[in-house]
Specification:
By secondary structure, this protein is mainly α. The chain is 77% helix and 0% strand. It is built from 18 helices and no strands. It starts with a helix and ends with a helix.
């Protein structure tokens, strides 16, 4: 029984990670990397894989340390309450508190029952391991707005796919899509991780079907492509986003099992396997599109260059090419729309679970002394978050690419390359190794050091490049 539960934990972690990463970005990826060619893309994307794997390992370790800090605070609070009743000297009580808590923590100490609600989440992680309040606020902003921006993009994509498939107006689709899935996430969050895993299996199957069909066409076409290393920047930047985002859902998975060493290893390995699977699927799809659709073209002929100018995903020039050369495969357009609908639905639910988990942690940590009001605060936070997603998707639908390219990539890269690397460094790299409290599953300190350097330079470089390229477009072209 335990072996089967362990296998399911591994599979569920792999599939939920895949659901979080594998959205519609895979369909846009070949268009963005088209000017650079295949080799620059694979090179930068492989580095992204290594860096994302390092960040996942960091987060798994930080979740354990966050859980440990919460347990220590809960234990300290339980021990202090009877002491306060017995000791008459207020100075003695204060002295005892200061032995285990900092002055700042003392001001926000809560009742022991509140700690049962404050489990390991991203908000508490920053609270314990990011010492500067302003930086903690920046981290919270990166996490929260990443959730919002990606879920807005998914709502817009779902409306477009439903409109093409069955002709429903985009506004109606967005209303039903956001409100129904928001209610599902809020009410049925405990049961949804397994459902997300099951639907991800079907979603990956559809993608594999698409890849198989396109691979056959690619085998017959074998169009040569050109590698241009001078245009690697676009491939580098989109690569950081295409494999990112899963760390924001890891706390949801971590809270769904008993954190024994064997379970934590299975959880970590499942998340790494899901990231590797997404890397492989992205590379296969991009290669197939690259050898079918011309990189560059003139006039109305389908090409990746033309698709980029019109902000089209890669299936648009692909279907245009198939309608001319291989009309018997035009049915793939139906498969694409079904894939987009299932993909964005599953990914929206997965990110919705992550956002709800984050909001729950933020509310209980921010208002520790108002336990009776938590439910109201949480419902208000849910209403604001999903309401914001709904309004932006309805009234600013054409900003999908600006949201994805400019804001989302910067927020995600700051979170992973700056904050996660810093927290991993702060908790493991100390002058006196005996000051590091070990957790059940952790990397060797040397591996952590290498990972911190690599991820800092990679994601930090992406942030700098993103700012530079955005400023360049604003100054030179007057638009993003």
């Amino acid at each position: 029984m335990e072996a089967s539960e362990g296998r399911w934990l591994f599979v569920k972690s792999m599939l939920v990670t895949t659901a979080t990463i594998l959205g519609i970005g895979i369909l846009a990826l070949p268009v963005r990397v088209g000017p650079a060619g295949m080799m620059p893309f694979v090179s930068t994307f492989s580095i992204a894989l290594v860096c994302q794997a390092a960040v996942i390992c960091f987060v798994v370790e930080l979740l354990q340390r966050t859980e440990m800090e919460i347990d220590v605070k809960a234990f300290t609070t339980e021990e202090m309450e009877p002491l306060e009743k017995c000791l008459s000297n207020d100075g003695d009580v204060k002295m005892r508190r200061q032995r285990s808590l900092s002055v700042e923590e003392e001001d926000t100490i809560a009742s022991p029952s509140s700690f049962t609600e404050q489990r390991a989440n991203l908000h508490n992680m920053a609270k314990f391991f990011v010492p500067v309040p302003a930086l903690r606020l920046l981290f919270d902003g990166c996490v929260y707005f990443h959730f919002l921006i990606v879920m807005i993009a998914y709502a817009i994509s779902a409306s477009n796919a439903f409109n093409k498939l069955i002709g429903i107006t985009r506004e109606h689709v967005i209303m039903v899509f956001v409100t129904s899935l928001a209610a599902l996430v809020i009410i049925c969050d405990k049961a949804l991780t397994s459902a997300v895993a099951a639907f991800t299996f079907f979603k990956a199957g559809l993608l594999l079907l698409m890849i198989c069909i396109v691979s056959y066409v690619a085998y017959n076409v074998q169009r040569p492509y050109v590698d241009d290393w001078s245009k690697t920047g676009s491939a580098f930047l989109i690569g950081t986003v295409s494999l990112g985002g899963s760390i924001n859902v890891l706390p949801v998975l971590y809270s769904s099992f008993a954190p024994t060493p064997s379970n934590i290893v299975l959880f970590r390995n499942g998340c790494l396997a899901g990231t590797l699977l997404c890397w492989a699927l992205n590379v296969m799809w991009t290669y197939c599109i690259m050898v079918i659709v011309p990189q560059f073209g003139e006039g109305d002929h389908p090409s990746l260059e033309r698709a980029a100018k019109h902000h089209d995903i890669s299936t648009i020039p692909l279907l245009q090419f198939l309608s001319i050369e291989y009309p018997q495969y035009e049915f793939i357009g139906l498969v694409v729309n079904i894939f987009i609908i299932i993909s964005v639905t599953v990914s929206f639910i997965a990110l919705g679970l992550g956002m709800k988990h984050y909001v729950d942690g933020a509310v209980t940590a921010t208002f520790p002394d108002f336990e009776s009001s938590w439910r109201g605060y949480k419902l208000a936070s849910y209403a604001f978050s999903f309401g914001f997603i709904l309004c932006v998707a309805l009234f600013f639908s054409h900003s999908l690419y600006i949201l994805l390219d400019v804001f989302n990539s910067a927020l995600l890269n700051i979170e992973t390359g700056v904050f996660m690397a810093y927290m991993a460094y702060a908790t493991r790299i100390k002058p006196d190794p005996s000051d590091v409290v070990p957790v059940a599953v952790q990397l060797p300190v040397g591996v952590v050091g290498i990972g911190v350097v690599l991820t800092s330079f990679y994601f930090g470089g992406a942030v700098v490049y993103d700012i530079f390229i955005t400023a360049y477009h604003l100054v030179v072209h007057g638009a993003l």
